[in-house]
Design goal:
Layout (H helix, E strand, L loop, with lengths): L1 E11 L6 E8 L7 H12 L3 H20 L4 E3 L3 E11 L11 E10 L1 H8 L2 E7 L5 E6 L16 E3 L5 E8 L2 E3 L8 E9 L3 E6 L2 E2 L4 E4 L3 E7 L7 E4 L2 E2 L3 E3 L2 E7 L5 E6 L5 E2 L6
Parallel strand pairs: 1-6, 11-20
Antiparallel strand pairs: 1-2, 3-4, 4-5, 4-9, 6-7, 8-9, 9-10, 11-14, 11-21, 12-13, 12-15, 15-19, 16-17, 16-20, 18-19
Helix pairs in contact: 1-2
């Protein structure tokens, strides 16, 4: 078992050293249908798929109820899940209001066994040229370090009434403050390849190429790919996880603290200038 990664040579126009570079992204995985999960679980447990589905649906209802009541919910064999918010911090009591909340979050914390499984899984990298021809294949020799999504920094943003507020991540009323930096905005360059369609938004408003955003602004992507294709999206070469629902793929990312490039591949086709209304 191994995680498959593609390293493809492409023109990188931003950064200190623009030019042709190999940019990594996870190889495409075909979404597994829900019924296949139940069928496989039935094979391993001896319990009928129908009974497993009924139990799974009931457990899902309990998870949603308890999570919205503020509980951290165990996901047996996987870890825990809870809800949280990302928000600005203010000094004055009168400035505290729900408008300080910038995004609601679903936070998944993997357990030790799952993290060890990922740490010990090898990564196979396939190197491609610009046309997709295989140049070589290598097996990773990285440390296997797994990112801890519980830890995050804070940044200073422009607050209410022109004052500087401190941005923090609040989860069920707790603030995690680990540093400050000067408020800045960064340009997001957007390019699209393929014959499908895509929209990029922030807080429901269209984001066009060249738009300036604050660090950690939540950017949402919606892609309708070419028929039979699975789309991809990367920010500065890092793959964005996409979720499929009825043929539409959605995902999001927090704006990095630097000028960044979002590349959307909607399927097979020629390069195309990004149109937020496409």
């Amino acid at each position: 078992m191994a995680i498959k990664v593609i390293a493809q040579r492409r023109e990188v126009k931003l950064g200190k050293n623009p030019g042709k570079k190999f940019v990594m992204r996870p190889d495409l995985y075909i979404p597994i249908q829900e019924k296949k999960v139940f069928a496989e679980a039935s094979t391993h447990s001896g319990i009928s798929a129908g009974v497993i589905k009924a139990a799974w649906d009931a457990a899902g209802e309990v998870l949603r109820t308890w999570a919205t009541e503020g509980h951290s919910i165990p996901l047996p064999g996987l870890g825990t899940m809870r809800f949280g918010v990302r928000s600005k911090a203010v000094e004055k009591l009168e400035d505290v209001k729900t408008g300080l909340i910038t995004v609601r979050r679903i936070i998944f914390t993997p357990n030790v066994d799952l993290k060890d499984e990922l740490k010990n899984t090898s990564i196979q990298i396939t190197c491609l040229d610009e046309e997709g021809n295989v140049l070589k294949r290598v097996t990773s020799g990285d440390s296997g370090e797994v990112e801890d999504n519980e830890n995050g920094g804070t940044n200073t943003e422009n607050g209410e009434n022109g004052q500087n507020g401190q941005s923090s991540e609040s989860e069920q009323g707790n603030q995690n403050q680990q540093g400050q930096q000067t408020a800045s905005t960064y340009a997001l360059t957007i390019s699209r390849t393929g014959v499908g369609s895509a929209t990029v938004t922030k807080d429901g408003n269209a984001v066009t190429s060249g738009t300036s955003l604050n660090e950690d602004d939540e950017v949402e992507i919606s892609i309708t790919p070419a028929e039979g294709q699975v789309p991809t999206a990367t920010v500065n070469g890092s793959e964005i996880e996409l979720t499929e629902d009825n043929g539409v793929y959605t995902g999001s990312f927090a704006m990095p603290g630097q000028a960044s490039t979002l590349i959307i591949n909607t399927g097979e086709g020629e390069d195309d200038d990004y149109d937020p209304n496409a």
